[in-house]
Amino acid sequence: MKLHDVKVYPSKAHLKREDQLAWKIAGVAADKVAVPKDTTEMIANRIIDNAAVAIAAINRRPVTSARGMALGHPRKDGATVFGVASGKRVSPEWAAWANGAAVRELDMHDTFLAADYAHPGDNIPPILAVAQTMGRSGRDLIRGLATGYEIHIDLVRAICLHEHKIDHIAHLAPAQAAGIGTLLGLKQDVIYQAVQQAVHVSFTTRQSRKGEISSWKAFAPAHAGKLAVEAVDRAMRGEGAPSPVYEGEDSVIAWMLDGPNAHYNVQLPEAGEAKRAILDSYTKEHSAEYQSQALIDLAFRMREQIADLGQIEKIVLHTSHHTHYVIGTGANDPQKMDPKASRETLDHSIMYIFAVALQDGRWHHVDSYAPRRAGRKDTVELWHKIETREDPEWTRRYHSRDPNELAFGGRVEVFMKDGSTLVDELAVANAHPLGARPFGREDYIRKFRTLTDGIITTREANRFLEAAQDVAKLPAGELHRLNVALPADLLAASKPGIF
């Protein structure tokens, strides 16, 4: 990996494009280096993972709405839409929108956490949509996805967005554009312009994840994918972009991130170096914010040691800055303690999540968020006894570059009414690569079958799983086989709109 210094320059400096981060990202994307076998295998796993969570969410209102909008933009040689028979195609930017929303809705696909946060599986919908539309092969798709994951994760390692209240899709859109560039074999100067356009249009605020969280949480990465497809299309036609988008005097860094005195160190693969970043990411076993994964597993373990949950006086979760301030009591969001809050809010409330996991000893992507479940009297009582506190050591481990120290969990103290205290901790989720039960191919397949059970036919499940596991051998023009369709009568229709 090569370290690149990124800072702001005055316009009079005339920074050469070869010295700009967007140009260097484009260089990684244009590099025709081979994709390693383990990267290819993990890409297949994440294709399965994305399809699983998308189909599980297929008839939820945001997904239905996004699908309805996409179907208003038919294109005979276009891309497929999750849930819809593959013979019906739409324009790729709208497939990216619909499929991106479906993948993101349940908050249950892959994750990467470092200086900022990411769901790198959000790269798959737009890159796959363009691959289908342009008649590319499975091998082309793999190359594009390896780039998308690489650029996304490299940016997330280096540049913090959330401390400036910028939503994390600002790192996603340029990665998606770079991945599409690799997929299509575009030249570096074309990818450079596409990346800059994608950056420029994707900076938004984190209000989408604050207060009363709405369906935009699912739409945000889908919108990034749509923007990325459009950015590449414009660049392919010869259109330019705001430049230098990262380092300029009025750039995103100068005005939206660390400011004129900013200094970032971004590591990117050197020429000829394989793109392996996907191997550093991890999926979710439970449908909730990633920082809750280890704490859910910890709740399952601790409940076995508590004879009567009604005798709990108070629970304190000692955890990282992010967990405390984004999904904990440090967020100061009263909605996170409200039994009538939306599902999108509840899956960002570790107080609610820990209470239900402690009571039920299981986690279900639908049942655990049902209004009746959230409103249960004993759950509300327990929920309101839980608070979070930032612990500097957990924050340090959260940002550690040492994979053996990296941690997304916390230490839990349960104070009982009789004066006794139960203490336990867990650093990483069981499904994490360093966890008690790391996810492998069979786990991804089991997750797919569990989440799609009763929604698609066994025949359709088997057909898709065969295609996804053999993605590298899919010939040009056959990537529609990576779609998953429901029986037509089981697919909900959206409310009418403009399209």
Automatic annotation (TrEMBL):
Pfam family, one: MmgE_PrpD_N
Keywords, alphabetical: Lyase
Top-rank lineage group of the source organism: Bacteria
Residue span, MmgE/PrpD C-terminal domain: 286-470
Protein name: MmgE/PrpD family protein
Assembly, per entry: Monomer.
Domain MmgE/PrpD N-terminal intervals: 20-263
Family: Belongs to the PrpD family.
Any one Gene Ontology molecular-function term assigned to this protein's record: lyase activity
InterPro entries attached to this UniProt entry: MmgE/PrpD_sf, MmgE/PrpD_sf_1, MmgE/PrpD_sf_2, MmgE_PrpD, MmgE_PrpD_C, MmgE_PrpD_N
Organism: Limobrevibacterium gyesilva
